[in-house]
């Protein structure tokens, strides 16, 4: 280390003892070993949880619903399967609805086709035309004011039909003849995840 010592502008000389003291202090500090680098915060390396999905082997999402699942034929409920239910799920709920009623060109209301709740998370599918629901599953009232599935029956145009699956962090209490609104009110604050399958149908589709 080289120190250049000069007189101050007023002609006085600097205090050489203080300068030497500071020089020794700087040398000591410079000779100390460098401290360890700050560690980066650790993050758990875990795969992100997959999003819940709902499928049908009868039609692809956005595809045409086959006629046997509509009012023009047997009016069976389509086969449904789901996967990637989130951790903590205690029950599932299903609402099937048509937002294009009565005419897709001028929709006026949402028509509800099926209401299910308290589906146990161990249940992963519903067979086509299911008549006997798995134990524990409860049915609500559709917009024909009856329990059970009512298939697409559009009066005009090609409608969209949404199969909405909800994963809930609780099992719902027995609801007296619940419609969609009653079920949604009971589910409020309990939804962990939602998955949607959409199919289309117009009368005459095959």
What this model shows, in words?
By secondary structure, the protein is an alpha+beta fold. It is built from two helices and eight strands. The strands form two sheets. It has a five-stranded antiparallel β-sheet with strand order 6-4-3-7-8. Strands 1-2-5 form a three-stranded antiparallel β-sheet, with no helix packed on it. Strand 3 (91-101) and strand 4 form a beta hairpin. The chain starts with 15 loop residues before the first helix and ends in a 5-residue tail after the last strand.
Which features characterize this protein?
single chain; 206 residues; alpha+beta
Q: How do the helices and strands follow one another from N- to C-terminus?
A: HEEEEEEEHE
Helical amount among residues, as a percent range? Answer: 10-25%
How are the strands of the biggest sheet laid out side by side? 6-4-3-7-8
Report the strand count. 8
The best one-word shape is elongated
Helical region count? 2
Rounded radius of gyration (Å): 35 Å
* Overall mean confidence score, pLDDT: 86
Which structural class do you get from the secondary structure elements? alpha+beta
Question: What gap, in angstroms, lies between the N and C termini?
Answer: 92 Å
Low-confidence stretches: 1-6, 36-47
Query: How is the main sheet built?
Result: 5 strands, antiparallel
Beta-strand content: 25-35%
